[in-house]
Amino acid sequence: MPVTIRDVAKVANVSPSTVSRVIADNPKISEETKKKVYNAMKKLNYHPNAIARSLANKSTKTLGIILPNTSEDLFMNPFFIQAMRGISVYGQKKGYYIMYSYSNNEEEEVDFISKYINSKWVDGIILLTARQNDRCISYLKEVNHPFVVIGRPENTEEILWVDNDNFKAMYDVVTHLIEKGHRNIAFIGGPHSLNVTKDRFEGYKMALQARGINIDEHMISETDFSEDRGYDAMKKILEQKIPDAVVTTDDLIAFGALKAIKEMDEKKIAVVGFNNTLLAAYQSPTLTSVDIKTERLGYRAAQLLIDKIENKETKVNHYIVETELIERESTQ
């Protein structure tokens, strides 16, 4: 039979409610009583579970993650796995558990968040995307529940968030390609409703304009984050014009672009992705990609949120994580 609070109370010769208060680290309980209870817990090998802590502390020590994908898509895009790893590393360090939900659309995301909060299952929420007119952010602000966003929200002053400088990262990539002699540079981005896509697209445009290069609408495409969609987008661009280089906002899109280029048997076209996923080094040719330090993004997000939950005084409401261009065969 599992050991219960009543068993601990009996061995320590105190009431079950006193054991609960000791678990909650109630300052009104004397050190002598705490010592008796801790010794009894150790003797019985008793470990309070999350529910017991919740009842005692009114805290679940759990973070809720909202994944903006179906379960089928999740494992196709390593970004989410890497971000969750970073969240888990910091969460475990601070004694927090992780609960997550998949979603098919924004309405479903809001519904999951509402259930998490109303059921008191989690102490805080982590969002893995930031959109225009984001309903999840609006709802969380309205109910005043602790949350953090991985991505740049539209209002950066009143929200906890973590991101890269996506404008600068793409600006630097395009500038690097121009300095290598490329002038006809195509852009394939994810959905423009996502702020990360908007920021990287602005970096692309500004880098071209800074060097006096006209923007060609035939060289720009918006698609989903998948290899198949990247392939289709690249095929359409190649039907219009053959670029010197193509920049994408995600490695999965870049994998599809590489495949389309190889099938066309065209001259060498430089290709750059984002996220520097493990498979980037195993493409043919190997893919140049921007390492956005995804695990670090998750780690910093958990740090901000847990500091908020634990009422730690800090003037920091966001972190900008540095990026690094990892150059491989696709741009050499």
Automatic annotation (TrEMBL):
Top-rank taxon: Bacteria
The HTH lacI-type domain, residue ranges: 3-57
Pfam families (UniProt xref): LacI, Peripla_BP_3
Record-linked SUPFAM superfamilies: lambda repressor-like DNA-binding domains (SSF47413), Periplasmic binding protein-like I (SSF53822)
GO MF, one example: DNA-binding transcription factor activity
Naturally occurring in which organism (per UniProt): Caldisalinibacter kiritimatiensis
PANTHER family, A to Z: HTH-TYPE TRANSCRIPTIONAL REGULATOR GALS, LACI-RELATED TRANSCRIPTIONAL REPRESSOR
Record's protein name: Maltose operon transcriptional repressor MalR, LacI family
Keywords annotated in UniProt: DNA-binding, Transcription, Transcription regulation
